[in-house]
Automatic annotation (TrEMBL):
SUPFAM superfamilies: Invasin/intimin cell-adhesion fragments (SSF49373). This is BIG2 domain-containing protein. It comes from the Bacteria. Residues 23-100 form the BIG2 domain. It comes from Cyclobacterium amurskyense. PROSITE patterns: PROKAR_LIPOPROTEIN. Gene3D superfamilies: 2.60.40.1080.
Amino acid sequence: MRNYIIIVFYFVLFACNPSEDPQDEYITLSENDLSISYNDEFQILVVFNRAGYTTADLIWESEAENIANVDQNGLVTGKRKGKTTITVRTADNLFSSSCKVEVQPINFLFKEPYFDFGQDQAFITNKESRYLSVQIPEAMIFDGENQNIRYLNYRFKEGKYEYSFVVLPGDQDIQEEVHDFLIQRYDLLGSSTLRLYFENEEVNITYAIDEYRDIVIFYFPKVN
C-alpha cells in the first residue's frame, strides 16, 4: 500500500511541475478581422507556446498578395481594395490560424459605375443617384457628380447593360489622380500608347486618352 501511495504522489508531482514545457493547442492572433487603408501597415501579434516550436519558425502567407501582403513577422500592408485572408502556420502544417483582411482605398475622386452587367435600364435608373441627362435604347448618360467628371455613359445592347465609361478632363493633375485612383482599386495588367489596362475580381478596365485629350475609363465585364 505504501509503495502505491509513493508512486501516485510522484506522478502528480511530475505532472504539475511548473517547469514543464507549455503545450498551447492553438496559434492565437491579436486580430481575427482587420480593416486597413491602401498602403497602410498593421502588425498582427501572435502567441504560440508549445514545445518544439518558436514564433520565429512560423510561416506567414496571404491568400491574395495583390490585395494585402504580409512579411514573416506578421506585418500586413494594404496593396489595393479588396478582401483576403492572412494565415500563419507551423512548417509541419499541424497548427495554423488566420485573419480576414479588408483593404479600403483613400482616393475618392469619383463614384464608379455599377458593375451589374446584363441588367436593364430600369435597374440602372433605380441604382443611380446622379442626374440622368440622356436616355435612348442604346445608352443612359448621367452628369458627373462633381467637377472632376464630365459624364458617365452606360451602354446597352438588346436592352441589356453591356459596358460603361466615365469621361474626365485630361489635364495633368487629373491624370495623376486618376492613375492613383485606379491603382488603389485594381491590378495593372499592362500598357500601350495612351492606354493602361487594369482588372480586379469583377471587371476589366481600359484607361485611355481620346482625341479631345479627355480621359476615358472603360468598364467591361471580367473576362476569365
